[in-house]
Amino acid sequence: MKIVFFGTSEFAVPALKKLRASRWEIASVVTQPDKPAGRKQEPLPSPIKKAAQELGLSIFEPEKLEIENWKLKIPEADLYIVASYSKIVPSEILRIPRFGALNIHPSLLPKYRGPSPIQTTILDREKETGVTIIKLDEGVDHGDIVASSKLKGQISKLKYKDVHDQLAALGAELLIETLPKYVSGKIKAKSQDHSKATFTKIITKDDGRIDWKKAAEEIAAQIRAFHIWPVAWTVLNGKRLKIFEALSSPSPTSERGPGEVTDTSDGAINVQTGDGILSIKELQLEGGKRLTAREFANGHPGLIGKILV
Questions:
Q1: Which fold has domain 205-299?
Q2: Residues 308/261, Cβ–Cβ less than 8 Å
Q3: 150's torsion region: left (phi>0), alpha (psi -120 to 50) or beta?
């Protein structure tokens, strides 16, 4: 039983490592080409490429997935597994292996199809999430469900990285548990209820901008969802201010307007929102260092009454 594994981001690494440690034979790993990163814009390998190199696996990095170069460079396989590959695999390629292609998706499909399921789950303040393994078809996260598993415990106060890592580990475990049943025919894929599908979008830097007219709970969720990238931000004295950690709390009726700093007590910078107070714990002003709220307040006297926009 030979497998070709498609993946790019950190989410796919646990699944690749679990496969390698199991009885399944990985014929090749397909990932995105090295991308420029950092100030020097030096090409850097994807997390999956690094993992594949460490595991001694062959690697294919096509600029485009096309059937012509596919036949030339990729070994034959019985099954494709796709996890956070970041490109749509053409239907003519999906049809090549006899067992088709399985995809590990970090949501409970049909909810949260698309490129940002984890961030959107947090933004929507969902209490639970999970992973779904589907048989890929030509639609985006549209295929029949092979298996799914819920993450234990609530996620309502977790940051993106915490949810991401737990789902990546859960997806890897579910894959290893599901594969023998799938290839032996003991699992029959079931169609999704497409009428219940919800969709996510590509996250941009602008999505990180805080609207202080929103409720404190919404803004706190935005900060948790984006604490890795793009990082939630606002503007103070004409400079971008990134906020990495904050808590929300209800507030009594106040004459303060949304975005106004109310006080800097208890190691926090407290800001009035459209509904409630946002207590900022960790932040970074453009051109400065990442600081705790206490450190920032000590270095920026006169914060009370300032308006964040």
A1: Methionyl-tRNA Fmet Formyltransferase; Chain A, domain 2 (3.10.25)
A2: yes
A3: beta
What are the pLDDT digits (tens) for 255-302? 889 999 999 988 999 999 999 999 999 999 999 999 999 999 999 999
CA distance 301 to 304: 8
Angle between helices 160-183 and 13-21 (to 10 degrees): 40
- Most distant CA pair in the chain: distance in Å? 69
In the chain, the amino acid numbered 163 is: V
Residues 6+ apart with CB under 8 A from 66: 90
CATH class of the domain defined by 2-196: alpha beta
Beta strands in the chain (DSSP E): 2-7, 25-30, 35-37, 42-44, 59-60, 79-83, 101-105, 130-135, 145-150, 232-236, 239-249, 261-263, 269-272, 277-285, 290-292
**What is the token pair recorded at 144?**
């029949």
- Is residue 262 within 8 A of residue 275, CB to CB? The reply is no
**Which residues make Cβ contacts (< 8 Å) with residue 206, sequence separation at least 6?**
none
How deeply is 175 buried, as exposed, middle or buried, from its count of CB atoms within 10 A (0-12, 13-18, 19+)?
A: buried
Which pLDDT score, from 0 to 100, does residue 72 have? 47
Buried b (16+ CB within 10 A) or exposed e, 85-124: beeebeeebbebbebbbbbbbbbbbbbbbbebbbbbbbbe
> Model's pTM, two decimal places?
0.93
Portion of the chain with pLDDT greater than 70, in percent: 97
- Domain residue spans in the chain? 2-196, 205-299
pLDDT tens digit sequence for 63-104: 887 766 555 467 789 999 999 998 888 888 888 899 999 999
Two structure tokens written together for 65? 């997935």
Chain centre distance of CA 54: 24
